[in-house]
Every structure is written in structure tokens, then in C-alpha cells.
């Protein structure tokens, strides 16, 4: 049975960030994820995880200046020293939370620009090597250009090729089904083919990015497919509730922790 992780950046926004851990546990989740933990202390997050017997599934390395429009710096030439510092900052939170998967955002850059491509490969190789020392996987996530125009890693094939070329045992794909459907479609066949390199799966309805209970995708079928493939990782619920978070959890009831 899939193990679902509530995304506390998008879900449970009716509560303050740290209180979302309590709310997610009360709703039956056994794990959580979020975009960024860095406005809270590692100790505060660890305390909420311990209090609620929650596992930390995933979070992102620092993304650069988010308020100024940066969406990662890995593919930005001239930012390598900042990236190295960001890796160390993320590792402080990883040590506190016990997370075993971190996502590296690529940034806004032209995927066909040689300088950006070189910077990205250098960043990925460095970050994966540093995380490997701590037993942590580095994840790469293709993101669609509708939600994030100009994002460097906007193609699943490009991510697959880079993972193969780098040939690093802890470098994995973050398979966001929402992004896959928008970029390429063919979700089920892609899951079957890419699961061996997949370290994390995320879900949302398409096109509205709401609860996984309707619109273009049959998630009941996809959950069965994921089970049949013997996937043993987390499934992150990276969706925007249509209304109050608790009112939209009927899809989750069969999977809730008792």
C-alpha cells in the first residue's frame, strides 16, 4: 500500500507551519514533505516529527532568492560557491529530521545553453557526492513550463539521460505525476519504465492541481499500478486543496493511519 506524505507547503494552510505537522498526523498521515524548512529551526521541526511519530519524506535544498524569482541556482553559472553553502545548510536539517531524500532545484535557465548545462552538471555531481556521504539521495524533478516558465529541467528525457550519464547510485528521479502529465502524458508507461531510477513520487489532479480524485487522471488505477510495481518509497501529496484541507481528504481515507 502506498505511504502518502502530506505536503505541508500546500496542504493544511489553515494552520501555522509547525502546527501543520500535528494536523497532518491527526488526519492520518504517517509522513510529511514540504518545499522548504528554513524559516523554522531544525530542532523545532524535529520536535514536531517526534511528537507525532511522523517520517520526513522530502524537502528541497535552498532555492536561491525565491522572492526575487529564483527557482534554484544549480544551473546558474557563477553560483557554485553559494550552492555548496546551501548543501551544508540543507544537511543540518537533514541531520535533525532523518530525511533520506533531498530535491535540488535547477533554476531558471536555457537548457540548451552550454554554460548553464555545465553549471548544472557540476552542481548535481557535487551535491550528490556530498549527500552520499550522509546516506541521502539527491532527486531531480522535471517541472512543466506552464507552472514555472523558463525552468531549466523541463523534460523527463533530459533528467533520465543525466542520471544515466552521471551514474551515481544516489542520484534519482523525482517523478511528479502532475508535471509528467502536462509535459509528456503517458504516465503509466513512464512509471513502468522509470521506476528503477525513481526515488520519490508526487501527485495532484490535472489540470487544476487539486486533490487526486478526478479530472484527467485515474488515480485509483495509478495507485494500483504503483503497488504492482513494488514501489517502496513515499508518494507526496503536492496539491492545492479546493477548500479546507480536511474537507478534501475523502480520497485518502482508505490509506490513513489508524
Give keywords.
8 helices; 36% helix; 258 residues; alpha/beta; 8-stranded parallel β-barrel
Polypeptide structure, described:
The protein has 258 residues and is an alpha/beta fold. It is 36% helix and 14% strand. It contains eight helices and eight strands, in the order E-H-E-H-E-H-E-H-E-H-E-H-H-E-H-E. The chain has helices at residues 17-26, 42-52, 80-97, 114-132, 156-166, 177-183, 187-194, 219-228; strands spanning 3-7, 31-33, 55-60, 101-103, 137-140, 171-176, 198-203, 234-237. The chain has an eight-stranded parallel β-barrel, surrounded by five helices. Helix 1 packs parallel to helix 2 (42-52), helix 2 (42-52) packs parallel to helix 3 (80-97) and helix 3 runs parallel beside helix 4 (114-132). The two termini are 14 Å apart. The mean pLDDT is 97.
Structural class: alpha/beta
Main sheet characteristics: 8 strands, parallel, barrel
C-alpha-based Rg, rounded: 17 Å
> Spans of 5+ residues with little confidence (pLDDT < 50)?
none
Number of distinct beta strands = 8
Oligomer: single chain
Helix coverage percent: 25-40%
Amino acid at each position: 500500500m502506498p505511504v502518502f506524505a502530506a505536503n505541508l507547503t500546500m496542504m493544511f494552510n489553515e494552520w501555522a507551519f509547525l502546527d501543520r505537522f500535528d494536523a497532518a498526523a491527526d488526519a492520518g498521515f504517517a509522513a510529511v514533505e514540504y518545499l522548504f524548512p528554513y524559516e523554522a529551526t531544525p530542532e523545532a521541526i524535529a520536535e514536531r516529527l517526534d511528537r507525532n511519530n511522523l517520517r520526513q519524506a522530502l524537502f528541497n535544498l535552498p532555492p536561491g532568492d525565491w522572492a526575487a524569482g529564483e527557482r534554484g541556482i544549480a544551473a546558474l553559472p557563477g553560483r557554485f560557491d553559494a550552492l555548496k553553502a546551501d548543501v551544508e545548510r540543507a544537511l543540518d536539517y537533514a541531520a535533525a529530521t532523518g530525511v533520506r531524500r533531498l530535491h535540488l532545484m535547477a533554476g531558471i535557465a536555457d537548457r540548451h545553453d552550454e554554460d548553464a548545462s555545465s553549471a548544472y552538471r557540476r552542481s548535481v555531481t557535487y551535491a550528490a557526492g556530498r549527500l552520499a556521504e550522509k546516506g541521502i539521495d539527491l532527486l531531480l524533478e522535471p517541472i512543466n513550463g506552464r507552472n514555472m516558465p523558463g525552468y531549466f529541467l523541463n523534460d523527463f528525457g533530459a533528467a533520465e539521460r543525466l542520471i544515466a550519464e552521471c551514474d551515481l547510485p544516489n542520484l534519482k528521479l523525482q517523478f511528479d505525476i502532475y508535471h509528467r502529465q502536462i509535459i509528456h502524458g503517458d504516465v503509466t508507461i513512464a512509471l513502468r519504465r522509470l521506476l528503477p531510477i525513481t526515488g520519490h513520487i508526487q501527485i495532484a489532479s490535472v489540470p487544476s492541481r487539486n486533490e487526486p480524485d478526478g479530472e484527467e487522471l485515474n488515480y485509483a488505477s495509478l495507485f494500483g499500478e504503483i503497488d504492482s510495481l513494488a514501489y517502496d518509497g513515499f508518494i507526496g501529496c503536492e496539491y492545492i486543496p479546493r477548500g479546507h484541507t480536511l474537507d478534501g481528504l475523502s480520497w485518502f481515507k482508505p490509506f490513513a493511519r489508524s
